[in-house]
Amino acid sequence: MASKVAVVTGGNKGIGFAIVRGLCKRFEGDVYLTSRDEERGKKAVSELNKEGLSPLYHQLDITVKESVEVFRDYIKQKYGGIDVLVNNAAIAFKVNAKESVAVQAAETLRVNYFSVLTTCEVLFPILRNGARVVNVSSSAGHLSHIKSESLRNRLKDPKLTIPELSELMNQYIDDAKQGIHSDKWGNSSYVVSKVGLTALTKIQQRELNDRDIKVNAVHPGYVDTDMTSHKGRLSIDEGAVAPLFLALDAPDSVRGQYVWCDKRIVDWDGPKP
């Protein structure tokens, strides 16, 4: 019987690195640290080797579909499938970024929503029945951050489809280009991307229920990483606690949920936690 397999995207630093570390300590199977940059990824693996841990490495750039397909073919040929998938790779522009709102909107959504979606579309067919998927969202992914009530209602519609959600994400990009986004969407492309990811999680769960696959979104906490300009209060290992809970320990009944850093299930479309 082939070994069980866990995969973490964007695993060379920050929360992703700590998730790989935690999986190496507890997951009964092979753990893949993946990253866009091969040199940085292999350096991260060697750091974990020094701790007595043995992650495996494969290059994976979620923004390049061919890269995801190469990885899928490798895993399928070697193992037959994936048991745990942690979609962690993401970007965030700094507050003082020089790029225009339009550029920030297009690039943030391209990576944090559309590339994650493509990665899932390529890898979901090789998820084993009973697999677990963890989509790393954010406190920014809470629906209350979207200003427009009509948009909030569309995003939480239990009949919303992935094409319809993607259309909404593209609508935000178009609105940002025209400078008419703030009254409806607010002023953060990162917020829109993570709200989109959380909405996507709920649709994915509906689509995968019959395969007993658990898909959840998680806010890992405000963590001391490059993305937060090291302003976060939590260590990366503390930030990995809730993602690891969903990957390894959460009851099978936890499906399609938005989970907070303290492992609480949060009402995504309720008041701000």
UniProtKB/TrEMBL annotation:
GO terms for molecular function: carbonyl reductase (NADPH) activity. The keyword NADP applies. Its EC number is 1.1.1.184. It holds the Pfam family adh_short. InterPro entries: CBR1-like, NAD(P)-bd_dom_sf, Sc_DH/Rdtase_CS, SDR_fam. The keyword Oxidoreductase applies. Keywords: NADP, Oxidoreductase. Belongs to the short-chain dehydrogenases/reductases (SDR) family. This is carbonyl reductase (NADPH). It comes from Papilio machaon.
